[in-house]
Amino acid sequence: MSIHEGVIVLMTSHSTHTQSIHSSSVYALFTFSCSQTLEFSFLCKPKPQIQIQLGSHYKCIMTVWKVFQEMEEIHSQSDHYRSSSSSASSPASRVPSSNFFYLRKPGAHRQPISFEDSPDWDDTDIEVKVEEGGGDSINAATTPASPSLSKINSGSLPSPPLPEGAIVSRKIAGASVAWKDLTITIKGKRKYSDKVVKSSNGYALPGTMTVIMGPAKSGKSTLLRALAGRLPESARIYGEVHINGVKAHMPYGSYGFVERETTLIGSLTVREFLYYSALLQLPGFFFQKRSVVEDAILAMSLGDYANKLIGGHCYMKGLPRGERRRISIARELVMRPHVLFIDEPLYHLDSVSALLMMVTLKKLASTGCTLIFTIYQSSTEVFGLFDRICLLSNGNTLFFGETLACLQHFSNAGFPCPIMQSPSDHFLRAINTDFDRIIAMCKNWQDDHGELSSVTMDTAVAIRTLEATYKSSADAAAVETMLLKLTEKEGPSLKSKGKAGSATRVAVLTWRSLLIMSREWKYYWLRLILYMLLALCIGTVFSGLGHSLSSVVTRVAAVFVFVSFSSILSIAGVPAQLKEIKIYACEQSNWHSGTLVFLLGQLLSSIPFVFLISISSSLVFYFLIGLRDQFSLLMYFVLNFFACLLVNEGLVLFIASICQDIFWSILILLNIHVVMMLSAGYFRIRSALPKPVWMYPVSYIAFHTYSVQGLLENEYIGTSFAVGQVRTISGYQALRNVYDISPDSNSRWENLLVLFLMAVGFRVLVFVLLQFRVRNTLSLRRLLQCNQNTKNPR
């Protein structure tokens, strides 16, 4: 007997209604609540009677599908399922049953599959009661959805009316993404082959979620990056990627890409962080971007956390990992992208946070955005929210299609999913070669329920079986047909949305860094206290020197110790500089920032704090030591020490850009400072230093030399000391045997100029490192770190 369909639509607004529905064999119940749940289930009962009560504060639509089938077929399938469920450990004896369907509409979450007599909806006021005269309990198994039911998945049914006061999400014009015969090779990425992805076919449509699933090293992230056009230069891509039927790369602003691990700014609130991100990405006026930020907050359900600090402060904890992950996605949504790529959205999330994340993404997809993301494993609830799945193993595509059809595909290949097992767990168990080692370890061990796994076949054989079954299946043919439809006609091309100007970005980064530094006490406030304590200690140790000729040697020592030890204290800024570099790398990967913009903003924002440190420390040291009481000399001392600190900031940034590791950065900086101190001319006059290495070039590279020279020239050039009652000597003559300085009165300004040039020079080196990505290829961390965590494609 053929399948017939019928639709009944019931609407309620305020009053409570009760409706009874009868069916001769099978009934399908579809319920919808605007803000809560969406359920669709088939129950196999002979002549059941359903009583549905709708709460008074919901506006609901119920669509009831009646599917009539032969009673003999239903009962035979039920009996067969009951007999096969007792032998779940034997995959050959398991066949899929057609007595249970579980479907859902994009944007809605569902309850877990229940095997009780009466399904419950805990999140709504809908009460469902099943009354029947007799019969066995409901038996369930998974089967693919019929073509008529796929209309629900595709969202072709009309949307229900929204309740009063509901917030309408802004619609997004999505874009179709289709890839055909996509092969990606990366030299040295695989042990036996350079092919990371092999002849992959698939597509993603607007308003849907397409997930790329597979075990570790299966090529998930590589395929995702290939679709987004973000592969490294060493990769070679073969095949075609079409966007709206056009074979072209997506322009800036038309798509968003969220890395597996992103860096957020903990000292900003969620709203501030997204607002500054919008200012960096979007052109136009400042006030026009507030609505974009609010839309992003609404889309990712961050309204309750909008005014909370991301990282917390003092005794307050920061936001949980799930909210942080949603913030990183919201940062890309301020551009309102047509396509959103996410690498492992459930990375390091617990089951509750993972479900909330996927429900939020489902709601985002319902606005029209095309979502493509990778995932390693998911729960049953999360798996039910996916629209399409691309299953990879070692670069091979084992399946592409709707999620329910994937269950049927595994059943057809001889690997049906057990009753109480998550589909994703079952898929990974069948295609993950790591399980072979576990089975080999436990081959002689069995628990009380039978074997360790229902999949007893060798994983390599299972992979080949699944791949061969898919290539000859109707699912693969349907993908080919859909690819032809998506690529035969060109749709509207995506256009760039424009960028913020360089001057605007510099201003935004400067202001944002100023705000961060003012809130983060570890950036400069702690260093200010340390510099003040150091100046106080040195000043009190060398206080009361007087201005006699005998005090010259001691005063030279005091100046050298002040400059050298203050320079060593600058190493305390390594963690802050590393955090700045990570933020830059995260923003630069999505073209939210640039190298020159980052360096200018970082320099301009640090100047006020560095100047505050220099003037406060200089005042304490200057008057405790008893240097000459002239305002012009004091200002030169402050400027000289300020330039010295700027050089230190540039040196720390330069080393941190190379190492990108706290331990190695501190270790290298300490050695650099020690070498510079030895060649600065205090322990041995520069003219007496060995000319190879120490004289040339180390003493000329050491900024200590120019700083100490300038300060001593500022203090002693133009002074004289009495020797006995008749003879006097100049300050230059008094210092000649203690420290090597120039007799020229303008020499101190030359030393100050050299310090400023060195400060600029270190930042130029940083610009070169970041611009040409030397941090990724010549990183000392990769050369010296013993236990390196390599990045493998997922």
Automatic annotation (TrEMBL):
InterPro entries membership: AAA+_ATPase, ABC2_TM, ABC_transporter-like_ATP-bd, P-loop_NTPase, Plant_ABCG
Stretches for region Disordered: 131-160
Alphabetical keyword list: ATP-binding, Membrane, Nucleotide-binding, Transmembrane, Transmembrane helix, Transport
Membrane topology: Multi-pass membrane protein
Bilayer-spanning residue ranges: 524-546, 552-575, 596-625, 631-655, 662-685, 752-772
Domain ABC transporter: 177-419
Keyword NADP: no
One Pfam family from the record: ABC_tran
Biased composition (Polar residues): 139-155
A GO term from the CC aspect: membrane
Matching PROSITE patterns: ABC_TRANSPORTER_2
Family: Belongs to the ABC transporter superfamily. ABCG family. Eye pigment precursor importer (TC 3.A.1.204) subfamily.
Protein name, entry field: ABC transporter G family member 3
Taxonomic lineage from the root: Eukaryota, Viridiplantae, Streptophyta, Embryophyta, Tracheophyta
